[in-house]
Protein: Simple sugar transport system ATP-binding protein
Organism: Kitasatospora gansuensis
Amino acid sequence: MNLLTLEDVGKTYGSVRALEGVSLTVRQGEICCVLGDNGAGKSTLIKIIAGLHRHDEGRYLIGDQEVRLSSPRQAIDRGIATVYQDLAVVPLMPVWRNFFLGAELGGRFRLDSARMRVVTQEALARMGIELDDVDQPIGTLSGGQRQCVAIARAVHFGARALVLDEPTAALGVKQSGVVLKYVAAARAEGLGVVLITHNPHHAYLVGDHFTLLKRGRMAGSHPRAEITLEQLTTEMAGGSELAELSHELGRPGPEADS
Ligand SMILES: Nc1ncnc2c1ncn2[C@@H]1O[C@H](COP(=O)(O)OP(=O)(O)O)[C@@H](O)[C@H]1O
Ligand SMILES: [Mg+2]
């Protein structure tokens, strides 16, 4: 089933054309990777999906219903969870408080903290995340661990689509691997995932579909079966442009001799 569909979506900021003619489908149980360099329009795309900005061209459908979102709340209420790179957490608050931030259990005047601790622990365990102590301040977790908690949170609160903005950009190889493992776990739970990244290796480890953006336009859209990691890397690096440059510089690249 299609969770999210973008058809020929465009967005202009003043005189800057940030997106033009972008189409994308996110299905249940699939990871759709959006790749692109700086300025390609990735964040703009996320903001449209998340209800932060409204598209001014094309159509945006959630399920089979066309929407024009005017706030993030509207996206969240429709089952779309967005995890931004600079996670909105309160560093000094325990993990469990952050997990339930804005969705606390208990009455108006008394939080059921014991229950929230247990539920947090269980929700993390369900995703295979092992944390010694949900009482530790979330600020003491590594960037990768925080991304993982955010993913578990989205799954726990019943998100149907999960949108991740460059979750591995600031992480080393090992931590990136851990985060990607939980992205795959979210897919296994039946969510549809939009994974934004500029790293074709990370995308290829988990992706089912790859969409390339270049200067706000689509520069490619491939199901996994139709593209190899090598091709994806070349496309991402601006294959033909690099070949041209290497020719100009008199230094033929690896693709020149094949
Ligand atoms: N709020 C904004 N106002 C004006 N221009 C913007 C705004 N946000 C993004 N842009 C421009 O839109 C283009 C795409 O930006 P962005 O979506 O942030 O790309 P990416 O996330 O892929 O780096 C860039 O040229 C950027 O300068
Ligand atoms: Mg960005």
The first strand starts at residue 2 and ends at 13. Residues 2-227 form a domain with the Rossmann fold fold (CATH 3.40.50.300). The chain has one domain: 2-227. The radius of gyration is 20 Å.
